[in-house]
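Sharing a chain and its predicted structure for anyone who wants a worked example. Both blocks are below, sequence first, tokens second.
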Amino acid sequence: MLGGQLVLLASQSPDPGGGPRSLLAGGALRLVAPFAQLVAAVGDVFSGFGRAVRGRSSLARENRELRTELLELRRERLRWTGLEREAGELAVALEFARASGLELRAARVVYLDRGSFLRTLVARVGPRGARRDQVVLAESGIVGRVIESSGPWARVQLVTDRAAAVGALLETARRQGIVRGAGPAELELEYVPIQAEVAAGDRVLTAGIDGVYPRGLPIGTVIAVEPGDERFHRIRVRPAVDLADLAVVYLLESASRPPASPREEVATP
């Protein structure tokens, strides 16, 4: 009863801190206020953490979207670069065909075999296909001949293949011989008699005697003349075409060429 009376008196006594509230109400406020402040501070911390998490998630999403957009832009740039390069190659092909006076058809190289004993490449020749033994050229000279064709694809034997042989003519000495493959980037000119004057730098052309290659197409350049047997030189030739760097080749559709002038008559070995 005494305790109840004290509580009743406290509820009715004015608060010494001022204001209309009772002593009991003021004490309760002083007890509860710090706790409420602590709860509010904790709430602010969690609220700030939540905003930070949401902000970080939003930044991560935006980052992923920007990365995706960047990849798309890079793909688009590569596509345009590829189209620009292809347009340039086609322009070169048209100019080469016009300047050479030959009937040519461009074909894209899709595979170049550098590792095996057989030196070949695969080209996409289009729906018209290709015929066996069709001559394949580049801007600077002969590449080889078609040895296999299937639909829009053709396999080409390179002149550097050791099984390849091309009837050849020394432009200066006017002597014929046979060019054979001698490695990845080298040829050998055989059956040129030792009486013929041959020097490094002499050009080697097709002689038109093998039934495949027409006359007068560049094969390569003499890089060395070495002693052979007692009858023939051993002549090393660098190919006119860099066969390791081919993107576009040309199929020779027509083998017709202007008639040779008298000075181009070929001397027999």
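Comments welcome. The CA atoms of residues 220 and 240 lie 4 Å apart.
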